[in-house]
Amino acid sequence: MEQQQQRSVSGSSLSPRSPSSQLHLSVSVTDPVKLGNGVQAYISYRVITKTNLPEYQGPEKIVIRRYSDFVWLRDRLFEKYKGIFIPPLPEKSAVEKFRFSAEFIEMRRQALDIFVNRIASHHELQQSEDLRTFLQADEEMMERLRSQETGIFKKKPADLMQIFKDVQSKVSDVVLGKEKPVEESSPEYEKLKNYVFELENHLSEAQKHAYRLVKRHRELGQSLSDFGKAAKLLGACEGNGLGKAFSELGAKSESLSVKLQKEAHQLLMSFEEPLKDYVRAVQSIKATIAERANAFKQQCELAETMKLKEINLDKLMLTRSDKVGEAELEYKELKAESEEATRRFETIVRLMNEEIVRFQEQKTLDMGIAFHEFAKGQARLANSIADAWRSLLPKLEACSSS
Amino acid sequence: MESLALDDSSSGPSLTSASSFTDRQSSGSQFNSILEPPSYAEAVFTSFDTSSSNGHRSPKLSSILDPCSHSDFLKMWVSDPQKEQELAPNSLVPGGTAYYTYLITTRTNMPEYGGPGSEFSVRRRFKDVVTLSDRLSESYRGFFVPVRPDKGTVDSQVMQMGQFVEQRKSALEKYLNKLASHPVIRKSEELRVFLVVKGKLPLAKSVDVASRMLDGAVRLPKQLMGEVSTDAREAWQPARGGRDLLRMLKELKQSVANDWGRVKPLLVEEDKEFLERKDWVVEFEHHLSSISQQAETLVKAQQDMGETIGELGLTFVKLTKFETEEAMFDSQRVRVADMKNVATAAVKASRLYRELNGQTVKHLDTLHEYLGVMLAANCAFSDRSSALLTVQTLLSDLASLQSRIEKLEAASSKIFGGDRSRMRKIEELKEAARVTEDAKSCAVREYERIKENNRDELERFDRERHNDFTDMLKGFVLNQAGYAEKMAAVWENLAEETNRYARNGS
Where are the stretches annotated Disordered (chain A) (predicted)? Predict the structure, then answer.
């Protein structure tokens, strides 16, 4: 890291035990509330910032933010910090009906909380002025900034798509052996791009199966509940010992159904969501790849133009034209621009190399936690199931001996 | 232990549901390169319940002793389906319809079949089974005669012929063994003939509509005249098919009179206890049907769960492979190790679910089987009603004959010296009345016999149901518990392996 001030700021709200002498910044996104009516309705969140950093207004600040505010922040960071993998946001909801379901709201809140915390704990991003604005500005200010944003900084989705397509076709071109001249083609970078694109496919598949697994838990829970009800009815009809056994079986089935529904929710929040988050992170990398391609293209184009200008200048100097002065000025400007473009590109390259390392480490940790929670949840469920059924056995023994 | 050495012989019963599970062994090779092969202990999956066996229940009579050597032992296997051609009547035209025959092998110690260690085979087609079933229904009225497999047809969009034949084969085996486990029917001559006599099945089909129609048609004009005396033996047989058109009409008239007439029939079902039991049976069947349906849904949900966990595991195997090939950083290698552990656990869990479900199907199948028993019970109850109807009809006949005789006698007594034609008529009617009286006695005897059978069968039903359902519940619960414990061990192991990621204080 080449910064002069090396500030270690613990930016995670997960470690509130940081000593007060150390600089810290912790954020949490809480209390989703539905506001507005009908089509205009939306969810607002409380964003609580606790910090002792001098750049901030005070030790604690609470603001109200909505989803589009988070989008604003992400877009600003994406513009300013090219080369850094901006933490991903949860998707906009496509299905109207689902938008206000408790589960969706909780999933989104969790994802937004993680988003802000990742920014707060990133050594570069945490210094962003836009972050400070986001965490401290009042609602009117935010609304103004949000509406300014559209049209100036926002990349149209179509443009982004085109960039993705270019990068993707470059990948396949290399594979097919065709070389397009205006793209980077270092073997390491190619490898990285391939890795990123393939990784997204694998992770999407994993996330899809994880989501299906959540559904299966719900279905099994439902079927156990229905089975239990039917068993109880049969038990009432049977009467005597056997009838009681059926009733007990029915009761146990119903209680296990509840446990399965609980575990389904857990699975969704602690296993499926992290996988989805992983996919989003990879998509964010793809956006950075597109930016890098853009920067490279600019650098190349400027270099080309500069060369042409140089040739032209030499020609003019040879012919002792009176346009030499003008041409010299233009050439100097162009040279500066070209150097700037090169610098921008090289910054992106450098940052990406750092970011990749950080990304891999982050993901190993994130997935490790997700796997652990997954294992614990499944173990807990299996043990509940075993206990419930075992507890029935003495009654069944009594039944068969009668 | 009820399982016998014979149980494991070549054509053991195949569970139709189990064969529908996708076999994951084909993807085993993909796993093995990444995952360690399962340890031997894990590879041997045993059922948890104490009453193992492959889905057959030996007759409860012999459950204490080793059934193999018991003189009551009787068991059948169905195997080797073969396609045969039914020859067209005109042999100039090539081919006819094709049908399948099945080899039915019997092993028994029963003296009626030749004593201990008897074994023999016959080849039968499904039509023969239908004949057997119809004859048993006729001979064993009032009993809960096991219901035969459906005739069914093969819809080529639903399944292939091969699969149909396989399903039919195992359904036949189940059916024959159900017959063998019925304490009364197992001794039937019809069954013996079916199992023993090679070649064409020497049992007359019960419903031979053509000749019976002829029969009925021939007698009809005379019967319409009300003149011909019915053979007493015939009178109390159930009216069936074209055979006794007139009698069917009479009985129909009687049953309408029972329901709507102003006069109470001369004999009614009075057994209160029976009526209560019958109502209970109806309610029970209703509940049984719904739990059987839910059991099917449960099995499907368990199957889906196992499949999805397996697919998740497979995805992680692929991810592991991918990240291993592309690994550039140490953190990646750590993640690869973690993902491999997850994949292993998921694949193990998937196998456990598949095993569990195989056992669950086996146990909950009892519910489905008892739906068949309910069908048999309903037949037994309707045997009783139709026997009663026959008695009622004959009583009505008798009463009307009596009244005609009285009228004629009254009329002829007014004529001095008698009325020869009327006298003749009176004699005829008196003869008819005698025959009808005999028929009525037979019918009453038959009715009482059927009532007795109903009673015995209801008792047997209660006893066996209690045992069978208790076994089912125990087996089901034991399996669920056992496999849940195995799965808990797998997941606890994974939790251990990922323990370093545990949040502080969680």
Answer: 1-23
